[in-house]
Every structure is written in structure tokens, then in C-alpha cells.
Design a protein that fits this description.
Elements lengths: L6 H16 L11 E6 L10 H9 L5 E3 L1 H6 L4 H8 L3 H4 L1 H17 L4 E5 L5 H13 L3 E7 L3 H17 L10 H18 L5 E5 L5 E6 L7 H9 L4 H20 L4 H19 L2 H10 L4 H11 L2
Parallel strand pairs: 1-3, 1-4, 2-3, 4-5
Antiparallel strand pairs: 5-6
Helix pairs in contact: 1-6, 7-9, 8-11, 9-10, 11-12, 11-13, 12-14
Length: about 300
């Protein structure tokens, strides 16, 4: 099942989106506009880094944000789709939202506006290398901003965002399927290894917005992909304890709102799995127990359940 839209409907949504954006901030025509391409797997924290990116672009002539999620919310009947199909609504509207993004990008290029684009780079190295080259050929400077986050942390981030949007009564809470998360995470480092050679500037951030690395085109090997690979393998004691605590909170929130049994079961499996990993590390277990005095027996029971 996929939502189908006419060209006229797409144009109407893009014009509505532009009107909403222009009510919040102005944009200027630029002789040498900037494409700020923010990359990270689903749940990595691209939205959390958004304000830093927006402040930067506001100081350089404003920007048009190619925001597929916001455009998706403007699709006809999307709220009803989200209510009826829940987690699957994002996939159902993927093509329609993508068509709106394509038209919005065309407008930005035609009017020489700065562009903010965030994504998982799921189309792969060849597609995005050609995209960066095309944008440079029409006069854009391309800056690649990469989030270096472990897969476990970003998976938890997907559930945190979804539960947070439900708690905030969002008309269209967004959930990313776990198999999609796995495939995009696996491919991201390889894609970055290709793109870092083509982009005019590369910055690597952690989830908290700290700059880990920066590189200008022509200065030799960037090294961004190596930093990303290292972050994806992060498995220290502090992280293990934080992940176990995070899944505890997610399960509590989902259970309190009477979430569907299969959804709760998925959360419970992740919770038990992360407790098992945490309990196998004495330092991580101590951090967890110090954070939640009295919860040791509960945690040990979860860890034992994971092994069965």
C-alpha cells in the first residue's frame, strides 16, 4: 500500500510548506548557496542537532529545510493514515513525501537558496556522490555533517522519539522499522567514505553536538568514516548502563499507555538483552545499581530472561 498523489497536489503542499517556513524566517538569494547535508542512521539524533545547523544557516542568508517529516504531515489524510496504520504510516507515505522533497529542492536551486537536508543516505554512495557533484556544478558549496552514534543508541532513539511524539499528542508519530534501521546503519560508513572525498567540508559530531572531527576538501584523507566506524562499535560501561536505563524508561512509558502487546514484547526483548549485556560488565552493573538502588534483583531477573 502506498499513497499516490498528483503533480498538482504535490505543488500545493510545497507552496503551503514554503508559506509556513517564510512565516518563521526569511531567506535570501545567494551567489554561492550552501547545501548542508546532515547524515546519520535513524534515531541518531539529527533533529537534536538541527538548532545548531539552523543557527549557522540563519547567519548565512537563511535556508530552506527539506524536511520530509514535516511535508509528510501536510499530506492529505495523513493524520487518519497514522491513526489507522500506526508504525506503518511512514512507509505508506514514503514515496509521496519523497516527491514533495524533490519539488522543494528544485525550487530552492532555482531561487539560489541555502538548503538544509537531513537523511540516512540510504540511496547509497553512488547516488549521493552524483547528487553532491550536481549541486556543486550548479554553484553550491556542500558541507557534510555526520553524526557518529552507536547502533544501540540510535535504536533506543527511535523508540524514544516515537513515545515522545505520542506523549505530546502528535497527529503523526513516526516509527522507523528495525530492519530499516539495521540496513541503513550498516551501509552508512561505506557511503560516508565515498562522500567525504567529494564534499567541500566535513564535520563529525557526537549525539550531544560536540565536534569530533572536521576536514576541508583538498587537505588529504578526511578520516570521517573511520571515526563513524569507531562510534558504531562503542561499547563502554557508561553506555551499557545508560542503554539499560533507557529501555527501562521506554517500557514503563509504553506499558502505561497500554501499547499493543507485540510492540511491548519487542521492547521487553530489547530491555532484557541490554540488561544481560550490562550485567556481564561489572563496571556497567555498578553504574546501573548506583543509579537505581534496590533495582538489582529486577535487573538480574531481566538479564537471566534474555539467556532463555
Amino acid at each position: 500500500m502506498s499513497l499516490v498523489m498528483t503533480g498538482e497536489q504535490i505543488e500545493d503542499i510545497v507552496q503551503l510548506y514554503l508559506t509556513l517556513c517564510q512565516s518563521m524566517h526569511s531567506t535570501q538569494r545567494r551567489e554561492k548557496p550552501l547545501l548542508l547535508l546532515v547524515a546519520g542512521q535513524p534515531g541518531a539524533g539529527k533533529t537534536g542537532l538541527a538548532e545548531t545547523n539552523k543557527q549557522y544557516l540563519r547567519a548565512h542568508g537563511g535556508y530552506i529545510h527539506l524536511d520530509a517529516d514535516r511535508l509528510r504531515e501536510l499530506l492529505p489524510g495523513y493524520a487518519a493514515l497514522a491513526a489507522a496504520h500506526g508504525e506503518a504510516a511512514s512507509e505508506i507515505t514514503q514515496a509521496a513525501a519523497g516527491a514533495c522533497v524533490t519539488r522543494l529542492r528544485q525550487y530552492a536551486v532555482e531561487t539560489r537558496r541555502n538548503i538544509l537536508e537531513e537523511g540516512t543516505l540510504r540511496a547509497g554512495a553512488d547516488t549521493f556522490t552524483r547528487y553532491i557533484q550536481r549541486m556543486q556544478e550548479v554553484g553550491y558549496l556542500v558541507e557534510l555533517r555526520v553524526l557518529a552514534v552507536s547502533p544501540e543508541e540510535s535504536l533506543l532513539g527511535i523508540y524514544k522519539r516515537y513515545e515522545g511524539q505520542i506523549a505530546a499528542h502528535s497527529p503523526a508519530p513516526r516509527f522507523v522499522p528495525e530492519d530499516y534501521h539495521r540496513s541503513t546503519t550498516h551501509a552508512l560508513a561505506q557511503t560516508i567514505a565515498a562522500l567525504e572525498k567529494q564534499a567541500d567540508k566535513v564535520l563529525v559530531f557526537d549525539r550531544r553536538g560536540h565536534v569530533l572531527h572536521q576536514h576541508l576538501r583538498g587537505d588529504g584523507d578526511s578520516g570521517a568514516s573511520a571515526i563513524l566506524c569507531a562510534a558504531q562499535q562503542d561499547n563502554n560501561a557508561q553506555s551499557k548502563a545508560a542503554l539499560a536505563l533507557g529501555w527501562d524508561a521506554i517500557f514503563k512509558t509504553a506499558h502505561a499507555r497500554n501499547a499493543k502487546p507485540d510492540y511491548l514484547q519487542r521492547i521487553a526483548l530489547h530491555q532484557a538483552r541490554l540488561h544481560a549485556a550490562m550485567r556481564a560488565d561489572m563496571e556497567a552493573a555498578k553504574i546501573y545499581d548506583d543509579k537505581l538502588p534496590g533495582a538489582q534483583a529486577f535487573s538480574q531477573k531481566l538479564a537471566a530472561h534474555s539467556s532463555h
